[in-house]
Specification:
Layout lengths: L5 H11 L3 H9 L6 H36 L14 H12 L4 H13 L6 H6 L3 H4 L2
Helix pairs in contact: 2-4, 2-5, 3-4, 3-5, 4-5
């Protein structure tokens, strides 16, 4: 069994968790935010949530529905969704409305749902030793 490169994995996890940092800061550091900035930030993170829902559906729900309908995965075409865009929208929304707890919570929800986002890379590739240990 090949040796795991723990340093490379730790660095990868830290880099991939960077989009969560603005969401946490936005949530726990409340301050007054002007209405236009709050509206724009909330709009961006809600869009990130919608993209996250699409990516979650394409990653987990669609393959199961196909398997149930056809009995196997033969002929199934994988669709990648819209990767990384949700993370960028989430970060932008948190930066614009920094201090809004509601925007921060929506951003955390977006990070949780968006399987095409940066925080999901370590989760989906952890067992792939060619990615981490090669």
């Amino acid at each position: 069994m090949p040796k795991k490169n723990h340093i490379r994995r730790l660095i990868g996890v830290l880099i991939c968790s960077l989009p969560i940092v603005p969401a946490i800061i936005c949530t726990v550091w409340p301050k007054a935010v002007s209405t236009p900035r709050w509206s724009m930030g909330l709009t961006l993170v809600v869009m990130a949530c919608l993209l996250g829902c699409l990516n979650f559906h394409l990653s987990f729900i669609r393959p199961r529905l196909y398997r149930r309908k056809h009995g196997s995965m033969e002929g199934y075409r994988f669709v990648s969704g819209i990767p990384v865009v949700g993370s960028l929208l989430q970060i932008a929304g948190c930066v614009i409305a920094l201090g809004s707890t509601l925007v921060g919570l929506w951003a955390l929800l977006a990070a949780l749902l968006d399987t095409g986002g940066l925080p999901w890379i370590p989760v989906l590739t952890w067992k792939d030793s060619s990615f981490w240990d090669g």
